[in-house]
Backbone:
């Protein structure tokens, strides 16, 4: 099936996407920060992927991918480097939502006196 | 370079950047490792589909194990594979995830959409309301 790889990516989106609603991860809500976050991982791993394809490290089954290529890169691979980091960030923020553990990006001064608005 | 070599170098570079360049020190935080444990479970699952169905195939010249066979799935475990996928994929995935979360944290640290912070989970709504006092 030409859509097999795309199907896996849709599964990743669905399996992680509910966290935004139920755990209020606010990752998609902060889409500008999310978009900037993705720039470097996408760039680095697309370059790695292009090298690996050229060097013959791995290959893709034309019967199970859409066949849409960006140069030598299957569309699914580009989407992978967007979908997987989003799922990872959703996981991090989901755990933070429940546990409140610090990741080092919290506001420098604690706002004890900030009243809820 | 082989995939094995690149994968090891990739992890080393990302960890060094995390510790000494970005100084996010994610690899010292349970707020990173607990989510990573969840992520790696789903990586084994989804990558097991990609590699078990031979959607993605590998050359034995690039990995510890042997090439994806032409006539069926690779080893489920053993021959340098875990849940059909080359063990190198675990390192590749770790690098991708560490870099992604690092960038997310770096931007937040610089105040780019630090707020609204995550949480609370919806199941705590009822408790939060009852703690705020009885509804009138």
Residues:
């Amino acid at each position: 099936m030409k859509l097999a790889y795309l199907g896996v990516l849709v599964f990743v989106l669905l399996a992680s996407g509910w966290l935004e609603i139920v755990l209020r991860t606010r990752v998609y809500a902060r889409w500008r920060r999310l978009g900037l976050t993705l720039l470097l991982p996408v760039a680095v791993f697309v370059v790695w992927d292009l090298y690996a394809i050229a060097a013959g490290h791995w290959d893709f089954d034309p019967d199970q991918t859409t066949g849409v290529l960006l140069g030598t890169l299957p569309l699914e691979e580009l989407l992978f480097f967007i979908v997987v980091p989003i799922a990872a960030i959703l996981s991090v923020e989901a755990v933070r939502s429940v546990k409140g553990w610090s990741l080092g990006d919290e506001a420098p001064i604690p706002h004890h006196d900030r009243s809820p608005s | 370079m082989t995939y094995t070599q690149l994968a090891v170098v990739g992890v080393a570079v990302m960890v060094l950047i995390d510790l000494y360049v970005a100084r996010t020190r994610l690899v010292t935080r349970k707020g990173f490792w607990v989510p990573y444990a969840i992520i790696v479970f789903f990586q084994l699952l989804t990558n097991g589909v990609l590699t078990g169905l031979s959607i993605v195939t590998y050359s034995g010249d690039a990995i510890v194990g042997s090439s994806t066979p032409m006539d069926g799935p690779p080893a489920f475990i053993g021959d340098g594979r875990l849940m059909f996928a080359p063990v190198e994929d675990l390192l590749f995935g770790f690098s991708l995830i560490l870099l992604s979360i690092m960038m997310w944290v770096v931007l937040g640290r610089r105040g780019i959409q630090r707020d609204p912070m995550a949480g609370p989970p919806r199941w705590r709504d009822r408790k939060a309301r009852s703690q705020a006092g009885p509804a009138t």
Summary: Chain A is about 60% helix and 5% strand. The helical segments of chain A are 4-22, 31-55, 75-99. Strands of chain A lie at 58-60, 69-70, 73-74. The mean pLDDT of chain A is 94.
